Amino acid sequence: MYGVGDVRFFDRIAPLYDLAMPSASGEALAAGFARAERPIDRLLDVGGGSGRASAALTGPNIIVVDVSLGMLQRASDDRGLSALAGDAGRLPFRDGSVDAILVVDAFHHLPDQRAALSEAARVIAPGGALVVREFDPTHPLGRLLVASEHAIGMGSRFRSPDALTADLDAVGFDAAVVDRGFDYTVAGVRPAEVD
User: Do 37 and 98 meet the contact criterion of CB atoms below 8 Å apart?
Assistant: First the structure.
């Protein structure tokens, strides 16, 4: 899911990660999920690490999927969440088997972003939603974050809100920017199948 160097980094900082990172915005995530055209009962938090974004949600059955075993242990032990080691580019779920996928502050770490989006389109049921919360590399603070992650050796590849929206559209989602700023939200709905 992440580059090898990124995985080692997250395994090392897992015990301190939640102290350094702010809580996820439940409002921003809810606005993205409001675009779904079906009830959200089963949700994957892909690249969900310690489960801090999942902790901002109530209602659905949530499974945190990540490659960092240290982070997954935090999600399971500290938050009591279901956690599964898995790669965003090869999700271990059947076609159309989930109602939504969430990716918070992790998309830029994925080595094959196109494969991750294609997998999301495969496993999300028609009418379901993909919500991505990311950092804008064109924002002044975003430029600083990009430089910082590259300086410590991460293979991060950031996308602007409009570029990420186009990427979601290209794999079959009906995507839109939900909010903009240093961190932004893009949501895509998988269209209902036409008979």
Answer: no
CATH of domain 4-189: 3.40.50.150
Task: Report domain extents, the chain.
Answer: 4-189
Helical H segments across the chain, by residue range: 4-13, 17-20, 26-33, 69-79, 113-123, 140-151, 161-170
What pLDDT digit, counting tens, does each position of 139-158 carry?
Answer: 999 999 899 888 888 788 99
Contact 155, 6 (CB under 8 A): yes
Provide the whole-model pTM: 0.86
Residues 6+ positions from 40 with CB-CB distance below 8 Å: 33, 59, 60, 99, 100, 128, 129
Decide: helix, strand or coil at residue 105.
Answer: coil
Contacts of 148 (CB under 8 A, 6+ apart): none
Q: What is the pLDDT of residues 55-72, one digit of tens each?
A: 888 888 999 999 888 888
